[in-house]
Design brief:
The complex is a heterodimer. By secondary structure, chain A is mostly helical. Chain A is built from 39 helices and ten strands. In chain A, the strands form four sheets. In chain A, strands 7-8-10-9 form a four-stranded mixed beta sheet. Chain A has a two-stranded antiparallel sheet with strand order 1-2. In chain A, β9 and β10 form a beta hairpin. The two termini of chain A are 43 Å apart. Chain B is 60% helix and 6% strand. Chain B is built from 23 helices and six strands. In chain B, α9 packs across α12 and α16 packs antiparallel against α17. The chains are: A mainly alpha, B alpha/beta. At the A-B interface, α3 and α39 of A face α2, α13 and β3 of B.
Chain lengths: 856, 594
């Protein structure tokens, strides 16, 4: 275990340092030159080269292929170091030894911390963990790319699986099996995310603190001394950069949680509950109306959250509820990073986290680059000729392959950051929209073209946009969900507001226009859709012809706290942004690149943070009025996807706001802020502390291991033994038990999951989600039932041939679910593996494919 | 150095190359294939046929061999051609280092490399090691000479030569560091060329060149040439693109050898490597260590580096968990270089006394030969009067000692010692040549050779002959004889049967199937539905080296024979359907063994 962990640490470090020269170039305007973002960049470029070249059949899907791809990244970096840049890089690193040491130690500490947590709770036996393990194992076993769908033989994976490719590459190179890689990946991604968040906020704070140094350099730039070396202009002196304050970023992004955990503690303590009518009642908990904790706690009361029949820490990811026409609740997923890591699902939204922060770093870089350039304009067509454009496109395009909805979100952030300097200098002009569109189109298209093999085999379940007429987020739930982030952000906004004293009008106009516009748009769209789509009302649980638009208006007006919060946040944010723009009147603000105004230079960080706050507000606001049509019909996944990203950008903003206020607020404001901040932090840390304690059983697990398959040795030792045997067996389709209700049941598809061999049908519900329907599934479920139940060998043989089955697995599940004709299998097939509970038959290739000589 | 000498030198190198080519290419197809050889040869063949096999991490061998097979078809000769050629061309490489080794030692080294048993053995097998040796040393030599572009090409080819290249590179790297460290600690007046000059034999001015603009250009040229070579040669001009994976796979395979999972079979025992070193490289071992120690004490940079190289390569081979006997070649090469330098020093005959030296050498040769042969007889012939034989040997040794003392007293001590050494050299050289002859497989004892790969196919002719005979009796309208190889995962067998039209390799066979011939493992429980006649054959043979005792080892060193119980045999059964035999009818019932 220790050796595996060490290998992963070293390989990820190697990927990062190999890519650092590229980051040094690509992120040249960041004070840390991409040092903290080099690891995500290295992994992404490595994974991209590996995936693309194996998909094009240039590389083999083996260790050599993985290593070759890594060496390619190293080669690109080496190329970058020509012409004396190696010396420059060495000198740069030499001057920032402390930063190097802090980033390395931070990564190591986070990696070790979460490795220990995973080692105490490694089992891959719940939620969607089996699916994720199946993808990793399938990528490791597939002879070619696109990798085989492990749960639907004969098809390639139809999912955004790039993260699993990167995990598989790490597993392959380190030589660890998929089930160990799963847990190491969680720890590694925890550390990568923390480090990337640190890097983003470090750069923002360093810019702020390095104002004086910049001004000096700006003067030099003005005198032409450093003409042509614009990347140097924005570099603050390393001594000015705060090294420890940015640690707030990993704290806010990864560990700080929503306030549901704190509420769980209050609930467990029995606070706000009174005994009445022979039972417990509480106006507060009823008003809050969060499932489970709206019910009375079970005495004796204590401070530790607990749930007699259930998992208390699960509820934090289900704070929100939607209510349909009849008042029935609809489940909404509102995951946040601490929950995701505590849950331990290696889902795409987790896997994409370091890379979205890398994308945010790219956005900050382009924003800084353009604020320092005379034209402040990004000519994306001219930029096409630069390698930087293509590297940026690889990063942003990769987000689609990692977690599809992240692509438009961070593409928009990048484009907004690229036009923001022009907006600040010239105010709103229509050509800004054209420039924005130009950037979106060129980068968007390049991002798609670079990942074309993925799109060719991908079928999305998304079926367009639906108006969210009666589904919306209650204000109380919004504050429980985001309060730990919104409080420091709003405190900072108010603090800035006080010093900047902007006019309220523009902010209010913008916020009102946006909220009102979306509200109106959703209503009009809803009316139009209701007229043509008669099934739409049913989605809301309403009868046909129900006055849904009117009901939407009534409900929202009756519960205004949520949209009013967003309205206020947008007003504050836009008001400030506008104030920065308007400081020198209507004339173009040349100071933005002349560095003559120290206050404005400091505001460069503030402006970018405002952009992050705006993006987060947009991500929370949008699903108030629209959501994506999928198999579920309500906002469950839309909220999940949008809120998760909102958490990341708001967490970065909250970390920055906290650091600034902690250091710069003065007088009673300082005292008040610090006291409130500590109290808030304590509330937000209740969840991760108690959660980790519970998940790890107080760090006293039954066994310390990173092997996620190890649990089978307790529950199904025979299966585990057979699976271990199949892990080394030749590649082929395996037949095992399946069921239409197999989803989320780790007993189903376990052979495919733990071996990477494709099975005929795994979890049908998931397959239909991934493929937007059940057409590909066809009659697989009854066919497998017939294979096991039939007494007629010809029938069985036809099924074996139809699905090209090589192995027939006969374990305890197959014996209990079907009535297998063992004599038939014994007669016609060869039992190639047997233990007390499992027999594996191999279908003779001879009988199925007669006449095919195997000689070349 | 005059033109005449240069011409002579060229002729000598040509002679060494001719010898090397002759003994490497002669009867190249005679030895049976091992599974390792066959696995690589099959991949090369499949690549030649335009298939897309999963390539092992030996792209240089596979790609080059596929080219030859594409032109000349697949055969044992074409499968072994490139290693044999590379193993032959190695003899020319000393010429690239003659300014450091000395002209005469370099020429002598060429001949010794031509005859070295280990190098000869691996050069006559399908594999990457000779390519790795040749291209690595060629790249170093060309770089030293200032031919940066060809050096880059050679380095690219070396990079494509699989894990053996990384093994050699690691040894060279460690040796360079060790030599630099020693030089730093013990600077000698004659080491004025700088610390790094011992590394790969680069001179001071050559090193300077590397750090200047011109050096930068040289690096660029070499790296560009290397990358283009990897890209073009590694993929055979893009026709085998996955050769690139295989190129990186060499490094991965080398690293994986360090981290063999618990329970995985490791390589041969370290003691076997030491035995192999003594058995195949006794001559260079004695003179090489002598020369190396001399270099270490006198501070000679070249000898010291060669000694470090030998030690590093040997230690690396010993500690590497996935070790193989052939890894020793990276140690034997510098050992030969040391030995030839030391040998030439010893052969610098003192003025008028060469006749005395030759006389002493002749006497020494005779006595050493007598002692050796007597010792062999003692071990090999039972029931000999041991005391008498030992007495004879002792007398012979005493005679040699007496003659040495007398010559040393009568002429000079130098004459006596050099004559003794020369005599010993002649005997050891004869032994080396004999060992090389065996290792080359000319005596049909390749299975008893430590440098031979894993289990070699033993009954190839019998298997193919039987199938061909039965095929002749099969009516042509049936489409030819169908052969099924059932659960015999032997690449060597697959290679032997590669030309059959209807052959399949399966893991199991349904009861109703009745192919003409079934080749199965030697499992008595196997029952076939039709009536078959079976013949038990030896599929492969491998020597269980760990069962040999000291006397067995001695016998093996001389005769390349091992006790009958030390050979591990894998049997198969070749089943033929009864109706294939003239006059027989197919009948139901289990198969029978005659």
């Amino acid at each position: 275990m220790v050796l595996n962990t060490l290998f992963w640490y070293l390989i990820i470090g190697l990927a990062g340092w190999l890519a650092f020269p590229l980051a040094y170039r690509l992120l040249a305007f960041l004070p840390d030159r991409g040092l903290a973002l080099a690891r995500p960049l290295g992994l992404l470029l490595w994974g991209y080269a590996y995936w693309l070249l194996v998909s094009l059949h240039v590389l083999q899907n083996d260790t050599g292929g993985v290593l070759f791809a890594l060496l390619m990244v190293g080669g690109l970096s080496a190329w970058q170091l020509r012409k004396g840049r190696l010396v420059e890089l060495r000198d740069w690193l030499g001057a920032r030894r402390k930063l190097v040491i802090v980033t390395e130690l931070l990564f190591l500490a986070l990696f070790v911390l979460w490795t220990v947590v995973r080692a105490a709770d490694p089992a891959i036996n719940s939620t969607e963990k089996p699916m994720e393990l199946a993808f990793i194992n399938s990528i490791l076993r597939s002879p070619v790319f696109p990798p085989a769908d492990p749960w639907l033989s004969g098809y390639a994976i139809s999912y955004y699986y790039f993260g699993y490719v990167i995990v598989a590459a790490l597993a392959r190179l380190s030589g660890v099996p998929g089930a160990v890689a799963f847990n190491l990946a969680l720890a590694a991604w925890f550390a990568l995310t923390g480090l990337a968040a640190y890097g983003l906020v470090y750069n923002l704070l360093a810019l702020r603190n390095g104002a004086a140094s910049n001004r000096e350099r700006g003067e030099k730039a003005g005198s032409g001394e450093t003409a042509g070396q614009d990347q140097v202009e924005n570099e603050p002196a390393s001594a000015d950069a705060p090294l420890f304050a940015p640690i707030l970023a990993p704290l806010f992004v990864l560990i700080i949680s929503n306030l549901e955990g704190f509420l769980e503690m209050l609930h467990a303590r029995g606070l706000f509950w009174q005994q009445a009518d022979g039972g417990w009642q509480s106006g507060f908990w009823s008003w809050l109306n969060i499932q489970e904790i709206s019910q009375p706690p079970v005495p004796p009361f204590g401070w530790a959250p607990e749930r007699a029949a259930g998992i208390w820490w699960w509820r934090a990811s289900r704070v929100l509820q939607d209510f349909d026409w009849t008042g029935q609740t609809r489940e909404i997923i509102d995951e946040f990073p601490a929950f995701s890591y505590l849950l331990g699902d290696l889902h795409p939204h987790v896997l994409s986290m370091p890379f979205v922060l890398l994308a945010a770093g790219l956005a900050l870089n382009v924003y800084l680059r353009l604020t320092g350039s005379p034209s402040a304009r990004l000519d994306s067509f001219a930029w096409l000729r630069s390698p930087d454009f293509w590297l940026t496109a690889i990063v942003l395009g990769g987000l689609s392959f990692l977690n599809t909805w992240d692509f438009p979100i961070y593409l928009a952030l990048f484009a907004a950051a690229a036009v923001l300097p022009q907006f600040l200098r010239y105010g709103w002009r229509w050509w800004l929209a054209a420039n924005l569109l130009e950037i979106l189109v060129t980068l968007g298209l390049a991002g798609i073209v670079l990942y074309l093999p993925f799109y060719l085999g991908f079928a999305s379940q998304a079926g367009g946009l639906l108006p969210s007429l009666i589904y919306f987020t209650r204000g109380a739930h919004l504050w429980v969900m985001f309060g730990s982030l919104l409080a420091p952000i709003i405190a900072w906004l108010l603090w800035k507001w006080r010093s900047a004293r902007p006019a309220v009008g523009p902010g209010l106009l913008f916020a009102g226009g946006l909220v009102g516009g979306l509200w109106l748009l959703a209503s009009v769209y809803g009316l139009l859709r209701l007229g043509s789509d008669h099934g739409l009302a049913g989605i809301y649980g309403a009868p046909p012809g129900a006055p849904l638009v009117l009901e939407s208006l009534t409900r929202r007006l009756a519960s205004p706290f949520g949209w009013l919060t967003l309205l206020a946040l947008l007003t504050l944010t836009w008001g400030l942004l506008n104030a920065f723009r308007c400081r020198s009147g209507e004339a173009p603000q040349e100071e933005w690149y002349n560095f003559t105004n120290a206050a404005q230079e400091q505001q460069k960080s503030d402006v970018f943070v405002l952009l992050l706050v705006l993006l987060g507000a947009g991500l929370v606001l949008f699903p108030e009025f629209f959501y994506l049509r999928d198999q579920f019909g309500w906002r469950m996944n839309t909220i999940f996807k949008f809120y998760f990203q909102a958490w990341i950008v708001w967490a970065a903003a909250a970390a920055y706001a906290s650091a600034v206020l902690w250091g710069e607020a003065r007088g009673w404001g300082q005292f008040g802020f610090r006291a409130a901040w500590v109290a808030l932090l304590a509330m937000a840390l209740v969840y991760p502390i108690f959660g980790v304690w519970e998940r790890t059983r107080g760090f006293q697990p039954t066994a310390w291991t990173l092997d996620g398959s190890e649990f089978l040795s307790f529950t199904n030792p025979g299966d585990l033994e057979a699976i271990r045997w199949l892990q080394d067996a030749p590649y082929g389709v395996v037949a095992e038990a399946t069921s239409l209700r197999a989803s989320y049941n780790p007993s189903y598809a376990k052979v495919a999951t733990h071996t990477g061999l494709p099975t005929v049908l795994g979890w049908p519900g998931h397959e239909s989600q991934w493929r937007g329907g059940a057409r590909e599934i066809g009659s697989r479920e009854p066919d497998i039932a017939q294979l096991y139940n039939t007494r007629d060998w010809e029938q069985a043989r036809a099924i074996l041939e139809k699905y090209n089955i090589r192995y027939v697995y006969l374990g305890s599940l197959e014996r209990s679910q079907y009535r297998p004709n063992i004599d038939m299998f014994d007669t016609h097939l060869a039992p190639i593996y047997q233990n007390g509970t499992v027999t594996i038959y191999e279908v003779p290739q001879y009988s199925l494919r007669a006449g095919q000589a195997t000689n070349p | 150095m005059n033109q005449r000498f240069l011409r002579t030198e060229h002729i000598l190198y040509a002679a060494a190359l001719t010898i090397a080519l002759l003994i490497r290419l002669l009867k190249l197809e005679s030895a049976p294939f091992s599974n390792d050889e066959a696995a690589l040869a099959l991949q090369a063949w499949e690549s030649a046929l335009g298939k897309d096999p999963l390539l092992a991490p030996h792209p240089a061998y596979i790609v080059l061999t596929s080219l030859v097979m594409y032109i000349f078809n697949a055969s044992a000769w074409t499968a072994r051609f490139w290693p044999a050629l590379a193993g032959s061309l190695i003899v020319l490489l000393p010429a690239l280092f003659r300014d450091r080794l000395g002209s005469l030692p370099a020429v002598a080294l060429a001949f010794f490399l031509a005859l070295d048993p280990g190098l000869l053995a691996v050069s006559r097998q399908a594999g990457s090691l000779p390519l790795a040796l040749f291209f690595t040393l060629l790249a170093l030599g060309l770089w030293r000479k200032g031919f940066y572009l060809p050096a880059g090409i050679a380095a690219g080819m070396a990079l494509l030569s699989g894990p053996a290249f990384w093994h050699g590179l690691a040894a060279l790297g460690i040796a360079s560091l060790a030599a630099a460290y020693l030089q730093k600690r013990q600077p000698r007046p004659d080491d004025g060329e700088g610390l790094r000059n011992v590394v790969f034999g680069l001179r001071l001015e050559e090193q300077d060149r590397l750090t200047t603009a011109a050096g930068s250009s040289a690096w660029r040229k070499a790296i560009a040439a290397g990358l283009v070579t990897v890209l073009l040669a590694g993929t055979l001009f893009f026709s085998i693109p996955n050769g690139l994976s295989a190129a990186a796979g060499g490094l991965a395979a080398f690293l994986r050898g360090w981290a063999l999972p618990a329970g995985a079979p490791t390589g041969v025992l370290p003691s076997l490597l030491l035995i192999a070193l003594a058995a195949y490289a006794l001559l260079p071992l004695i003179f090489g260590l002598w020369g190396g120690l001399r270099g270490l004490l006198s501070g000679g940079a070249v000898d010291r580096f060669l000694l470090m190289w030998f030690i590093a390569a040997l230690v690396l081979a010993l500690v590497y968990p996935g070790r193989a006997v052939s890894d020793l070649l990276w140690a034997i090469l510098p050992l030969w270089a040391l030995a030839t330098r030391q040998g030439v020093r010893l052969l610098e005959l003192p003025g008028q006394d060469y006749l005395a030296v030759l006389g002493q050498a002749l006497l020494s040769t005779i006595i050493f030969a007598f002692v050796s042969l007597t010792a062999v007889t003692l071990v090999n012939v039972p029931n000999l009067p041991q005391q008498q034989v030992l007495l004879r040997m002792a007398i012979a040794v005493l005679m040699l000692a007496a003659s040495t003392i007398l010559i040393g007293w009568g002429w000079s001590r130098t004459v006596a010692v050099r004559g003794l050494v020369l005599g010993l050299s002649v005997v050891l050289l004869a032994y080396t040549v004999a060992a090389g002859w065996d290792a080359a497989g000319f005596t049909g004892k390749s299975a008893r050779d430590l440098f031979a790969g894993n289990a070699q196919l033993a009954s190839a002719d019998l298997i193919t002959g039987t199938i061909e005979n039965l095929d002749q009796w099969t009516p042509p309208q049936t489409g030819g004889l169908e052969v099924v190889v059932l659960n015999v995962p032997s690449p060597a067998l697959r290679w032997e049967l590669r030309n059959l039209q209807r052959v399949r390799f399966v893991e199991n066979l349904p009861p109703e199937a009745s192919p003409g011939i079934v080749i199965s493992p030697d499992q008595p429980e196997l029952a076939l539905s039709a009536t078959y006649r079976g013949q038990r054959l030896v599929l492969s043979e491998q020597t269980a080296w760990n069962t040999l005792n000291a006397a067995d080892w001695f016998r093996w060193m001389v005769f390349r024979s091992v006790p009958a119980g030390s050979a591990s045999l894998q049997h198969i059964i070749l089943w033929a359907r009864v109706d294939l035999f003239p006059g027989e009818q197919a009948q139901s019932g289990p198969g029978t063994l005659p």
